[in-house]
Amino acid sequence: MIIRPVDEVRGELNAPPSKSYTHRAYFLALLAEGESTIENPLVCDDTLATIEAIRSFGAGVDGKTVVPPEEPSPGFVYARESGTTARFSTALAGGIGGKTLIDGARRLRERPMDGLVKALKGLGAEVDGFSLPLTVKGPVKSGRVSVDASKSSQFVSGLLLLGAEVGLKVEARNPVSKPYIEMTLRTMEAFGVEFEREGFSFEVYPGVKGTRYKVPGDYSTASFFLAAGALYGKVRVNNLLREDVQADMAFLDALEEFGARVKRGRDYVKVEGGELKAVALDCSDFPDSFPILAVVAAYAEGRSVIRARQLRFKESDRVRAMAVNLSRMGVKVRELEDGLEIEGGRPRGAKVETFNDHRIAMAMSIAALGATGPSIIEDTESVSKSHPGFFDDLRRLLE
User: Fold this and answer.
1) pLDDT at 314
2) What sign has the CA pseudo-torsion 53, 56, 60, 62?
3) How many CA atoms, within 13 angstroms, populate the side-chain half-sphere of residue 166?
4) What pLDDT is recorded for position 309?
5) Within this chain, do residues 343 and 358 fall inside the same structural domain, yes or no?
6) Listed residue (241, 237, 184, 155) closest to 20, CA to CA
7) Where would a tag sit more exposed on the chain, N or C end, judged by fewer CB atoms within 10 A?
């Protein structure tokens, strides 16, 4: 795809539905007593993988309606490239008698599963393997577990869902991306799950109620369009609730640190450009924002440092991917173990790679809009993982 620089970006969009909430709603609907309706679900490669997964466990899915089985049954789950699908399915398989096989695409086979596997083994499940493909044979025999969550909060969220299935005490050690755990808890509350907590220790009681659940808008995908407003003009994104707990709401604070003007409405966010200055940021709690924050840093005056602990374990090695692409655009970049040091300026047009990573594709598309010449973004099809309509929305802002 060729993207040519523009003079400004001004416009208004509706945020797509949240991928994270959509995943959680479908898995809870699988466990529920009674039918559930998922309103406004995100339809993308990852959430389709989750729908296929809950079907393999015995749920009936007809559009937005989920009819749970009397008891989830073991089966085969192919998670495509969805880490959430793989980890939640692995955890829930621990509550089922019989063997479940979980597998995924090549990159997903490389992503960490060890913390979750060790936790399930500690609960008495039989697990063959520490990365995909693996088999899980339940049911678990113990009601208390401590999990190392330093590589992924999804280990914790998966065990919380298992708790809603069988009852469980969960202690999360060194959790990263903590807001995603809060999103899991909020969705559990919507499905009538009862739990107690003290910090990141939880006691979850079994029982999920079928419900009508409306998926909120997605701050993660909206961040790319809002960044375009900060860099090139003014953008408003609707369907973003101020009273939410999504991880990437912290992206707005980061934009303000850079010097952008941010207005948070009850159900919208508006961002307008300002004089952008370098910052030092740790986005370990909202790592999905790292690629687009690196792009903002490439245009900000001065030397920025953007870090997050788990960046090398995503759909791509995002530290390396952004270092390679920004360097091709003439940006001075130094690669750190857990992030990037970026000297801001005016990137030039270049041929860049997406590394088959949806967030790299989106970030580099925004970077290209302000470059000194046209850019070629290779393999943009990866955006279908989280927002198939990304480029349609971007074109609306440029009309």
Assistant:
1) 61
2) positive
3) 25
4) 78
5) yes
6) 184
7) C
73 is in an annotated binding site: no
Is 19 annotated to bind a ligand? Reply is yes
Residues 242-254, mean pLDDT to the nearest whole number = 97
Q: For residues 66 and 30, is the Cβ–Cβ distance under 8 A?
A: yes
Mark 358-392 as b/e (b = at least 16 C-beta within 10 Å): bbbbbbbbbbbbbbeeebebeebebbbbbbbebbe
Average pLDDT over residues 376-390: 97
Q: CATH no. for residue 326? A: 3.65.10.10
Q: Looking at the DSSP assignment, which residues form a beta bridge with residue 263?
A: 270
Sign for the pseudo-dihedral over CA of 115, 117, 120, 124: negative
Look at residue 315 in the predicted model and tell me its pLDDT.
64
395 pLDDT tier (thresholds 50, 70, 90): very high
Give pLDDT, residue 141: 83
Confidence of residue 313 (pLDDT cuts 50, 70, 90): low
Same domain, residue pair 9 and 26: no
Residue 211 lies in a domain: no
83 known member of a binding site: yes
Q: Name the residues annotated as catalytic.
A: 288
318 is an annotated ligand-binding site residue: yes
pLDDT for 363: 99
Token pair 């609960």: residue: 123
Which of 139, 174, 204 is the last residue before a domain boundary? 204
- C-beta separation of 238 from 270 below 8 A: no
Report the percent of the chain where pLDDT is more than 70.
99
Q: How far apart are CA 220 and CA 223, in angstroms?
A: 5
Do residues 159 and 117 lie in contact, with contact meaning Cβ atoms separated by under 8 Å?
no
- On whether 20 is known to bind a ligand per the annotation, the reply is yes
Helix (H, G, I), strand (E, B) or coil at 386: coil
The encoded tokens of residue 383 equal 């955006």
Parallel, antiparallel or unpaired: strands 36-39 and 212-214: parallel
**pLDDT given for residue 25 in this prediction:** 99
Q: Let me know: does 278 contact 300? Beta carbons within 8 Å.
A: yes
Question: Which range marks the domain in which residue 337 is found?
Answer: 2-15+218-398
Establish whether 111 is an annotated binding residue.
yes
Full-model pTM: 0.95
154 is in an annotated binding site: yes
Is residue 63 predicted with pLDDT exceeding 90? no
